[in-house]
């Protein structure tokens, strides 16, 4: 079995910032890993990038966030990549700083993405209280009153965001079959806490451990999202493998990206 493939979702002509993301993807990862583009059936993509292959799915999967969530929760998607032990999802608001991909594949984990961090608690009592509350809310699937979505506290310091994420392909495929009822529930609800990465990060491990997921203290070396300053604090200012949603924090990332040759 082949080790890992990089999967880049593209659903429209790419913007300047997305091109920065894609340039860096090929610059860092293409020498050692195949890079696939997934796209809507109807999109005729003219691109300068030498993708290993283009794999098309139904247009409905690419129309909005809800459609993309359905794709990432579908057996159809993971079945397309069963030749690979792992896949790296690389959305075009991701950026990789170095090729640590094989290192992460050797850690014998099933899923990792940028941890959902928060700024430091004001004191130890608040930190302990929120940690206990988070555990209770995850264990008993506490819902928000208005949206009936999983509460926000369930995501605090959990791992992690799906935009730049490593997934064990066969296991994810198997879990799409085992969790069909829950996947239907997630697919029918547009609330953010029903996004596909919440399903993989929290839902599948709610009652028992189905996925091996590293702690936030380890996962922060895989990827940053927000808050970036808290992430740098945890790594003692070392850059991770990559980052996600950098386009929403341009002032933070601009001087760092300049060192990699990009003007953002």
Question: Could you explain how this protein is built, in words?
Answer:
- This protein has 264 residues and is α/β, with parallel strands linked by helices.
- Helix content is 35%, strand content 19%.
- It has a domain at 2-111 and 159-186 and 242-260: Spore Coat Polysaccharide Biosynthesis Protein SpsA, Chain A (Alpha-Beta Complex), CATH 3.90.550.10.
- The chain has eleven helices and nine strands.
- A six-stranded mixed sheet has the order 3-2-1-4-7-6. Strands 5-9-8 form a three-stranded mixed sheet.
- It is globular.
Q: In CATH terms, what is the architecture of the domain at 2-111 and 159-186 and 242-260?
A: Alpha-Beta Complex
Summarize the helix and strand pattern as letters. EHEEHHEEHEHEHHHHEHEH
SS-based structural class?
A: alpha/beta
Shape type? globular
Rounded to the nearest angstrom, the distance between the terminal CA atoms is 39 Å
Largest sheet: 6 strands, mixed
Total of helices:
11
Strand order of the largest sheet: 3-2-1-4-7-6
Q: How many β-strands, per DSSP?
A: 9
Determine the CATH superfamily of the domain at 2-111 and 159-186 and 242-260: Spore Coat Polysaccharide Biosynthesis Protein SpsA, Chain A
Helix content: 25-40%
Backbone CA Rg: 18 Å
**Strand-residue proportion:** 15-25%
> Whole-number average pLDDT?
95
Indicate the CATH topology of the domain at 2-111 and 159-186 and 242-260: Spore Coat Polysaccharide Biosynthesis Protein SpsA, Chain A
Which spans of ≥5 residues are poorly predicted at pLDDT below 50? none
CATH class of the domain at 2-111 and 159-186 and 242-260: Alpha Beta
Pfam family, one: DUF5672
Organism: Pedobacter kyonggii
InterPro entries: DUF5672
Protein name: DUF5672 domain-containing protein
